[in-house]
């Protein structure tokens, strides 16, 4: 009897105070328990190695009792889910969603048994968990003062990080030990337009780490909806804790039950390639509610854009004036003679797009207001419907249509989100009326509503509002300077890409480190597709004789690789048409490469060092591979074992020449054609700052005959 | 030669350092000069009595040099203007605009001769002046930290005031000496939903004063556009100074040249009636730019409204729940059984409106979201397009149209202006689609964008944005809880009325002092028409047996007088139809009274004591008079000398019975018909808290024969 009682108590103890859950493959183990004072805690291990040591969970409330301690467990539920789903566009046609879930109900006896839930989902590649606040008597509205989610790491990991900031994610990455972050924070906080750095040591997510015992750990969030973005405080002892983006009056989040936080995600593996292959974040997002998604399509595009940065021959603005109002008559401005978005010039781009099979042409600087759009915290900065006098909307609509090309609308808001929202329906109506089906949005500048931040709850809701409104008009959205993505492209598939990191434009504004793009897939791209705008062939920008001495810090071949290594269903060929005309053989890869995929194979990867990825084009027997390195040369190993067995294919390899590197002779490349099979393995040299790209297609018998095997 | 030089210096001194300008009738005299350190100053006198003693003018800039001192006068210009114009709707058909203008250009040698202008307009009844910032090299954008406009009064005047507040103007008036304000401020700051009182002693404008030497002085502002509303600091020595409403980050105003402040207005006379007759504020507003104003029409209306306050039988909300989201299915709510805006009930109101000649029926509580709309700082609070399940939009549209009645839309925002703006086009489209041509807007609650205030620059622009957008859809706007009006109904004539003060609803929420409506015409109504919602016949609210013990603190006859004393082209008959059915003879006045006028005659007035006004109906030989008193009885003297000479008219007099007063027997009234001519003078008794109303019409010969002469 005593024995039985003891067993019962053990069991009761387990139910009330500790729960252990494992991933379907048993590699990931979560332990949940309450501390002595009723504080929820969790631990995470991967293959018995500690990932997160005991860490507390809690939400501090501004206008009432907090959800921090005094909890008791009133219910726990477990279930295992294993399903497949198909994204509208993506890295693979079918995504498996396989996890073990633990749902814990916690009540606070001291607060009328008010209860919350913690939902944990253990995947084979990590953990997602969130706080849930069910609708109940006595809990309808509350204000989040701060979230206190800890991530107590097991050691002084190597980390690839950018500093915490409420307004920008366009920082360069620093690689250091966690313990070195406080000392490096100031240096890492380089000057960016409209920034609001967090004062204490902190990093942004996705935060990529590597432990001394060989674990790759990525912390981020999924499904950031109606809540501020989370940064991570870097506390002493390798402890991270959540740091939410406050609003204009210092509150973090306005909650109404039913409510939940975004998922806090920890992707973990002992293989770096698993991190890149992870679909954990997408799986934690909700399926789309859009009934019709037939109008959402991948886009390969060019644009009147890079010339604004480098060529010195054109400008967004039409007038010489530096003080304009939307109520002005812009036909009365003094033309500066260098306006880029003229009817004639856009027609040249349309011709080039049509000739080379691009879907669309982005045109920036088409609408009035660019003369003084930046830095003035000006609310009525653009109206999104009035073209400059030299941009003929109707003529271009007809011309583009006749060529089978779309024009991509551009809506720079200058951070004035209120102005954008009040004009949004009219802007989208204008797009519908004039044949536009996609828009690039921009948020350069301090936010209006003044006091709000790019990454706060209000703006988080704004971006989603824009995506949803756009869907009403069957418009696709590519947002720049928006909050870092969290997999919402699953739920809002017309939000097809974002910038939300330091992209190619910075190559013209100080340059990017050669390793930058070997880090981005492990950080920024964990959240979703990036409009990185690759494809710069003229990497030495002094070529333009515009006074600058910048260069794009890659070889030409590396730019080709980006079309595969940087996933996005929206891909730009960002360079000037004239430069593509100079290198037609290399340009062929950009013309050929797919932007939507049946499958993806992460062949090699190490954050900060290299990435090699192969992908199968959606619905086609074509495969494309991209490989990149950092500032060091290397030899990539490219297996073709994903190819159907027993069949020969033609591989075209675009590689750095032996004498190329990112600083010298970056345009020296070698293109070779060989026959490959599923048994082929390529050892491919990559130059310092270089890369390579491969297209694999079915060849005619004749073609195959004329080529050597790999 | 010495003499000549001296004369020249005197002249130069006059040009550089002092300017005196007089009103067309020479009664109002402005003296402008620079102080020794180049600070602009002005003085104002009326019939040689000091109104404003030497007071400084200046604008403190946040992000650069201020416009406070170091000025020199570089140019002055004078002109006299005398024109007439016709308002779309108004107290008189033709308004004379007659002033002498002094335009002073001031430059700052120490700031690259940057210059501003001060524009003064001297009318026979006062002064308007403003700061102007012309477009110039080196002055495009600046942020106003504070405006330093002084109004140094000449003595310890009697003042009718409400305390300074960034969010509400719904305070009860306090009458005191200026010197008593600091001690009374706390008591005067009664609790109001969403208030943000100014901490230092301050009052709101329009601020009405009476000097010991018999001057009536009113300080307000005109044409408040793209600038925050001004309150007045009450500094020692009867000195007032401007206090602007800050934004979320503590800035006052974002300016882009060309820019100007609103006009600061000082209406002055030795006759109180002149203050009420003043058109100075309207004259300082810009003419409308609307090309077509044919759709803007006066409106006499009833509404599903007062029953929410008093009758206890109906509610705005449909469901019993207190936690709803716009995404909820409202057909699944538990009906509370008391929803007011049901199809059947609104049809009853439509029937009553049609039978009694009303133009429209206001319906509040028609749309989903009222279950938890207040006090939660909830952004997505209403969508303005989704009716409750028991409100049939299409059926009511057809029914109202068949009866020749309009339904007035209601858009309560709960202060969530961002939510309203993002839905505005859709809301107005919905109105167009469903036959609505007027909307009552509401801003009950703390503003979103959070940190902004009802009276700040952002919201000032919001209200105007709503009016302009509404005009695109030919919709008239009646805003409640908006910033106090400043004559913008001239520029935006579809913004036909506002609440912006303590109106009739407060009779059901604690009551209004009997003198309240003798003050409002001198304060709130100086800015523009008020939707005061008069016409309460059942003044004793205990009648409804709903547990309250409130009463409307007037007699029934006084409620009739309001239709004349409280000018608005939008007038409600606010009581329940059943109460009008109980008093059909008194109700006849409400049915008869005009709401738009050819002319207005302010017969008697003393702020805080009494007001008697007569008006001629627009385009008709009908005249209506209203007279009210405070808590004291009085005998009004009503001359009919505005009537065409030599003709007899029938006057119907609706007066308090001898035994009536606001506390007891308020419903005792006497209706008499008499013959009047332009020579008639009526001595009319008014009960304590009472009033009277008179309609004057042409009578048939028979009618005239049967009546006694006055």
From TrEMBL, chains A, B:
Coiled coil: none
Cofactor: Ca(2+)
Subunit structure: Monomer.
Signal peptide: 1-18
UniProt keyword list: Calcium, Signal
tRNA processing among keywords: no
Sequence ranges assigned to domain Glycosyl-hydrolase 97 N-terminal in this UniProt record: 21-287
GO MF annotations in UniProt: carbohydrate binding
Domain (Glycosyl-hydrolase 97 catalytic) ranges: 305-501
One Pfam assignment: Glyco_hydro_97
Top-level lineage group: Bacteria
Identification of the protein by name: Alpha-glucosidase
Domain Glycosyl-hydrolase 97 C-terminal oligomerisation: 596-696
Cross-referenced Gene3D superfamilies: 2.70.98.10, Aldolase class I
């Amino acid at each position: 009897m005593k024995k039985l009682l003891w067993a019962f108590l053990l069991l009761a103890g387990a139910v009330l105070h500790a729960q252990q859950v494992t991933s379907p493959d048993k590699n990931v183990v979560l332990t949940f328990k309450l501390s002595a004072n009723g504080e929820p805690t969790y631990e995470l291990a991967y293959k018995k190695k500690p990932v997160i040591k005991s860490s507390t969970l809690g939400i501090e409330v501004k206008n009432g009792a907090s959800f921090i301690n005094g909890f008791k467990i009133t219910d726990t539920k477990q279930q295992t889910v294993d399903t497949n789903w198909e994204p509208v566009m993506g890295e693979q046609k079918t995504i498996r969603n396989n996890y073990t879930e633990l749902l814990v109900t916690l009540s606070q006896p001291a607060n009328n048994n008010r209860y919350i839930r913690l939902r944990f989902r253990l995947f084979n590649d990590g953990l997602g968990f969130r706080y849930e606040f069910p609708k109940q008597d006595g809990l309808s509205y509350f204000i989040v003062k701060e979230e206190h989610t800890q991530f107590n790491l097991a050691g002084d990991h190597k980390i690839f990080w950018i500093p915490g900031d409420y307004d920008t994610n366009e920082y360069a990455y620093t690689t250091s030990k966690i313990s070195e972050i406080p000392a490096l924070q100031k240096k890492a906080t380089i000057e960016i337009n409209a920034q609001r750095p967090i004062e204490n040591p902190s990093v942004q997510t996705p935060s990529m780490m590597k432990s001394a015992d060989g674990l790759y750990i990525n912390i981020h969030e999924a499904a950031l909806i109606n809540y501020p973005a989370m940064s991570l405080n870097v506390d002493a002892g390798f402890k991270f804790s959540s740091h939410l983006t406050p609003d204009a009056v210092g509150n973090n989040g306005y909650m109404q039950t039913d409510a939940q936080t975004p998922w806090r995600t920890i992707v973990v593996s002992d293989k770096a390639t698993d991190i890149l292959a992870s679909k954990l974040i997408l799986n934690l997002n909700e399926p789309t509610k859009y009934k019709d998604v037939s109008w959402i399509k991948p886009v390969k595009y060019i644009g009147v854009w890079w010339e604004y940065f480098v060529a010195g021959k054109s400008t967004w603005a039409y007038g010489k004036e530096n003080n304009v109002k939307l109520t002005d008559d812009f036909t009365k401005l003094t033309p500066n003679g260098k306006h880029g978005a003229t009817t004639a010039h856009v027609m040249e781009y349309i011709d080039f797009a049509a000739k080379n099979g691009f879907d669309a042409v982005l045109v920036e600087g088409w609408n009035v207001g660019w003369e003084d759009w930046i830095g003035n915290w000006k609310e009525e900065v653009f109206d999104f419907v009035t073209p400059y006098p030299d941009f003929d909307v109707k003529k271009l609509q007809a011309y583009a249509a006749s060529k089978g090309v779309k024009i991509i609308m551009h809506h720079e808001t200058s951070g004035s989100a209120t102005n954008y929202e009040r004009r949004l329906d009219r802007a989208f109506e204008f797009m519908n009326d004039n044949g536009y089906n996609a828009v690039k949005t921009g948020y350069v500048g301090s936010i209006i509503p003044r006091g709000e931040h790019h990454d706060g709850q209000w703006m988080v809701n704004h971006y989603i509002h824009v995506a949803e409104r756009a869907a009403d008009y069957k418009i696709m959205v590519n947002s720049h300077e928006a909050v870092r993505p969290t997999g919402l492209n699953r739920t809002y598939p017309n939000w097809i890409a974002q910038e939300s990191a330091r992209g190619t434009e910075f190559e013209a504004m100080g340059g990017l480190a050669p390793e930058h793009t070997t880090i981005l897939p492990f950080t920024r791209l964990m959240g979703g597709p990036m409009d990185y705008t690759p494809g710069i062939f003229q990497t030495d920008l002094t070529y333009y004789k515009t006074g600058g001495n910048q260069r794009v810090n890659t070889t030409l071949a590396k730019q080709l690789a980006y079309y595969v290594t940087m996933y996005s269903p929206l891909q730009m060929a960002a360079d000037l048409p004239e430069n593509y005309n100079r290198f037609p053989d290399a340009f062929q890869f950009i013309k050929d490469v797919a932007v939507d995929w049946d499958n993806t194979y992460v062949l090699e990867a190490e954050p900060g060092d290299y990435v090699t990825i192969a992908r199968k084009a959606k619905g086609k027997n074509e495969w494309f591979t991209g490989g990149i390195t950092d500032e060091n040369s290397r030899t990539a190993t490219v297996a073709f074992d994903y190819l159907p067995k027993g069949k020969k294919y033609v591989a075209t390899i675009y590689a750095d020449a032996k004498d190329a590197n990112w600083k010298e002779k970056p345009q020296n490349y070698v293109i070779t054609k060989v026959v490959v099979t599923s048994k082929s393995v390529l050892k491919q040299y990559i130059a310092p700052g270089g890369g390579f790209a491969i297209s694999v297609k079915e060849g005619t018998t004749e073609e195959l005959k004329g080529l050597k095997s790999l």
